[in-house]
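The records we work with from here on pair a chain with its fold. These numbers are not coordinates but entries in a learned vocabulary of local backbone shapes. To see the layout at work, look at the sequence and tokens printed below:
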Amino acid sequence: MEVTVYILRCSDGSYYTGLTKQEVEARVWEHNEGIYDGYTSKRRPVELVFTETYDRIIDAIARERQIKGWSRVKKEALVALAYERLPELASRKRR
């Protein structure tokens, strides 16, 4: 079973991080249709800006939680695939 961690850019410029076992395009469609009440329902339309796929749901859940704890700047570096910048953007190192 594949699980996808994804980041959406909302119409207000904020980011939403989630995970899904279904095709990510179908999940993005659900966000844009407002199928579920939640963070993105009032921030439509949303745009898919990042995905990572995992074989184990436990790994996907851990990654989703990790990304949700990151600053906006660090999320933007991830979206830009600037992996080399991620260590320098760690909040513990910025203090």
Observations:
- The chain has a mean pLDDT of 94.
- The domain at 3-94 is CATH 3.40.1440 (GIY-YIG endonuclease).
- The two ends are 39 Å apart (CA to CA).
